[in-house]
Design brief:
Elements lengths: L2 E5 L7 H14 L4 E3 H10 L7 E3 L2 H4 L4 E6 L1 H11 L6 E5 L9 E2 L3 H10 L2 E13 L9 E2 L2 E5 L7 E7 L2 E8 L1 E5 L7 H4 L11 E7 L9 E4 L4 E7 L3 E6 L2 E6 L4 E15 L4 H9 L9
Parallel strand pairs: 1-2, 1-4, 2-3, 4-5, 5-6
Antiparallel strand pairs: 7-8, 7-18, 9-12, 9-16, 10-11, 10-15, 12-13, 13-14, 15-18, 16-17
Helix pairs in contact: 1-5
């Protein structure tokens, strides 16, 4: 088995847990590969890192059978930029906070690795979005797993966003911004802006205004297929376009085209993991707040 590793700087409290992850990975692949910055981080903090090779291109990752991501959900989002079209299964080991995507705790590492060896896992393909601005790509990875968001750059005035779907006018939103979220992203930024929780696998998108001026502008659920176009206007000459954790500056009047991506991110789950139990655990559903 060929394994790739991806991660970000983590708290020293997780040093022993990460060392254990590396030991288990090395049992499956004596020379796994890791992205450069994370390899340097590991070299500074643990001797096991000397066995790690470095990868520098998505093509190298595409040759692997599994990517192990150490971090939080943000790390999984960044890992998607390396996996790309290859659909290499991603196993997220959570050293972050909520962990909807990075859903294996550091105390479950042995369980997870044993399950990988035994084939007692299941795979879930998460839909992604492709984004163009005025017909052009803004980067070499113009895709988003969680959401595409158009936002104002400061707090001085609102942004006006006109939305069409397949050339049919939807609405004009006056707000601090507008989010187009996938089912995966429904538990992220969209949720904090009042959007609904959507079960992964649902072929829908959530259009969620951020602090709308008109209180009648509520989140809207539309089919995942089709083409959405967002056109921001306002007093400012430029606005922010967010693709998950990446942001770009776009000019007022630009047309942001959002369509389904031609590939999906494949997540690896353990047999006992499923969406509703994760939501209950992460969001404390059914828990008396007085007993937390």
């Amino acid at each position: 088995m060929k394994i790739a590793l991806f991660g970000k700087r983590f708290d020293a409290a997780y040093d022993d847990a990460v060392k254990h992850v590396l030991r288990r990975v090395l049992e499956l692949d004596p020379s796994p590969c890791v992205n450069g910055p994370f390899r340097e981080e590991l070299l500074e903090r643990m001797d096991l890192a000397e066995h790690l090779r470095e990868y520098t291109t998505p093509e190298e990752v595409a040759e692997c059978n599994l990517m192990v991501v150490i971090g939080g959900d943000g790390s999984v989002l960044e890992a998607a930029t390396w996996v790309r079209h290859a659909m290499v299964p991603v196993l997220g080991v959570n050293t972050g906070r909520l962990g909807f995507l990075s859903n294996v705790g550091t105390d479950e590492v042995d369980l997870a690795m044993d399950a990988v060896l035994a084939g007692k896992v299941w795979y879930e393909d998460r839909a992604m979005l492709e984004v163009r601005v005025d017909g052009e790509y803004l980067s070499d990875f113009p895709f988003a797993l969680n959401e595409v968001a158009v936002m104002k750059r400061d707090t001085s005035s609102m942004v006006t966003v006109e939305v069409t779907r397949d050339d049919q006018f939807v609405n004009t939103y006056w707000a601090d911004g507008l989010i187009v979220a996938t089912p995966t992203g429904s538990t992220a930024y969209s949720l904090s802006a009042g959007g609904p929780i959507v079960m992964p696998g649902s072929e829908v998108l959530c259009i969620t205004p951020i602090a709308p001026h008109n209180l009648n502008d509520r989140p809207l659920v539309v089919p995942f297929s089709g083409r959405l176009e967002l056109t921001p206007e306002g007093r400012e000459q430029h606005f922010l376009l967010g693709l998950d954790s990446r942001t770009f500056q776009i000019a007022a009047g630009s047309t942001v085209q959002v369509t389904p991506a031609p590939f999906r991110l494949r997540l690896l789950n353990l047999e006992h993991q499923e969406f509703f139990s994760t939501v209950r655990a992460k969001m404390h559903w059914g828990v008396d707040p007085r007993t937390r």
